[in-house]
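User: My collaborator sent over this chain with a note saying "see what the structure looks like." That's all I know about it. Can you take a look?
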Amino acid sequence: MRVVLIGAGNTATVLGSNILHAGHEVVQVLGRSEDHASRLAEALNASFILSWDQLTREADIYILAIPDDHLYDLDDKMNLDDKLVVHVAGSVPMEVIGRISTRYGVLYPLQSLRKEVPNIQNIPLLIDGSTPLVLEEISRFARTLSDTVEMASDDKRMKLHLAAVIVSNFSNHLFVLAQEYCEREKLSFSLLLPLIFETAFRLQFAPASAMQTGPAIRHDQKTIEKHLHLLESEPSIRKIYEVFTRSIQALL
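Assistant: Without extra context I'll predict from the sequence alone. Here is the result:
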């Protein structure tokens, strides 16, 4: 398919790489910054543009890989008639882009995407379409990019987006706190990397609840008190430690 990428950030970069790898053609990249748009376009063997009125009308699918809040302001900037248009947001209703085209939908990559790591393969894709025929067309395209493609309504997509924030963004914040703690205490955070990898790896084999370890689940109050004592000078981390300990024990 001939693809137009609207956006030149993290999502556009990773999706663009996968689209090219799957044998499709990226014909244009539209970006706000000439530097970002031109670099991505060069990597994808495409041309770059900086204005909506320069959009080609000869593409098969237009992918809106732009910040979520920008999706609400597009109808006065572009009209693609009956061209296939999708957005890639987890938390934005499909109908938001309904005034852009008569054929619209969603292609949401359920993954944390960074342009520094553009070659992430087999990203789960959650899709939806304005009609059954549109959904089938989006599905055919999505299945060239990933082995994991699933239809998801606005409600289901929003709930999965929430779960994704918890498992990715929140866990990464804990890594930030642990890394900064290690730096302050002159400890090597790299020693914890095998533990981080192993914790995630185990989830393939059993429910997360069955994989829980540590002093909280053992009700090892002596160790918990020692940890809290160490955190007397770290009130923010101490508060999170106490909340997580109570939450773990509440599930027992």
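A starting point for your reply to your collaborator: Residues 8 and 75 are 20 Å apart (CA to CA).
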